[in-house]
Amino acid sequence: MDADIASLLAQETQMIHSLLSFAIHTWGPQFSFPRGGDAVELIMIRWLHFVAGIIWIGLLYFFNLIGFPTMKQLDASVRVKVYPVLMTRAMAWFRYSAAITVLVGLRYFYHQLSADAQNAGNPSLALRWFGLWLLVWLVAYALIYPLQLPSKGFLNNPWVRTIGIAAIVIAASWAVLDLNSNPMSSNGHLAISVGGGIGLLMLMNTWGVVWRVQKRLIGWTRDAAEHGMPMPPEAERLARWGFIASRVGFWLSFPMLFLMGAADHYPFLSSIAR
User: Fold this and answer.
1) Does a structural domain hold residue 9?
2) Beta-carbon contacts of residue 106 (< 8 Å; ≥ 6 apart)
3) What pLDDT shows up at residue 105?
4) Rounded-to-integer distance, Cα 80 and Cα 167, Å
5) Domain for residue 17, yes or no?
6) Which end of the chain is more exposed for a tag (fewer CB within 10 A), N or C?
7) CA-based Rg of the chain, rounded to a whole angstrom?
8) Residues near 142 by Cβ (< 8 Å), separated by ≥ 6?
């Protein structure tokens, strides 16, 4: 009798196990991970790029759409208390997320260049493409930098500043597309050549202008709040400089984000490769 019960229980257990296995196999998630370290590296790079980029651009939009307008509406006595506390933490996240976004993005970009160079039968093209790309965008930033400085007269006109910066970015974009064009140049390669270049401009503004300005403004407002010290005369000019640089980054982010998305999802640049 006991043997029959044990046999029946064993059969029921086996049946339940079979049903569960069938259900998991049929309706459960199916995993098939790519093999090789290259695929793992690329997904980790892209994941870090997305996470850090969301923090960076999210803070950029917060500053331009919410932060600056709100600060202008606060009384001076309130502003000097809020500003150093808010901006100290915000700028830490802002500048380091920008650095991570661009650094891991450069690694992914070079992988794209290497793949296209291999397909072209000339692996040395990757370094050549990267070097020319970097040179073009560094020259572009050197030309954009003075247009962001607070000035008087003709250069202080917003339209002059906007048209000048737009012309430089368009010229740099055209230059890298022309220099990096090849029958094997992929849409991702060409889209990132422009979008990543704009991102590099934004990074240099983040560290070279915005952080330099904010570091001093944070210190001055903290001294004003804690020790009653007056803001120095140059504070207004520096605040204006930081605002212009931040606003330039805000507007540049729109074509940059479009091109980052188009790299994998909108192959409109492949046709220009010669």
Assistant:
1) no
2) 196
3) 96
4) 38
5) no
6) N
7) 27
8) none
Residue 92 lies in a domain: yes
SS (H, E, C) the chain: CHHHHHHHHHHHHHHHHHHHHHHHHHHCCCCCCCCCHHHHHHHHHHHHHHHHHHHHHHHHHHHHHHHHHHHHHCCHHHHHHHHHHHHHHHHHHHHHHHHHHHHHHHHHHHHHHHHHHHHCCCCCHHHHHHHHHHHHHHHHHHHHHHHHCCCCHHHHCHHHHHHHHHHHHHHHHHHHHHHHCCCCCCHHHHHHHHHHHHHHHHHHHHHHHHHHHHHHHHHHHHHHHHHCCCCCCCHHHHHHHHHHHHHHHHHHHHHHHHHHHHHHHCCCCHHHCC
Look up residue 160 and give its two tokens.
């002059």
Task: Supply the pLDDT for residue 255.
Answer: 96
Q: Report pLDDT digits (tens) over 25-37.
A: 666 566 666 766 6
What total of structural domains would you count in the chain? 1
Which range marks the domain in which residue 135 is found?
34-272
Do residues 140 and 201 touch, judged by C-beta distance below 8 A? yes
Task: Work out the angle between the directed axes of helices 76-119 and 211-227 (0-180°, nearest 10).
Answer: 160
pTM assigned to the model: 0.85
Of 81, 97, 116, nearest to 228 by C-alpha is 81
Give the residue from 74, 100, 97, 98 showing the smallest Cα distance to 86: 74
Task: Give residue 23's pLDDT.
Answer: 61
Q: How many CA atoms lie within 13 A of 104 on its CB side?
A: 18
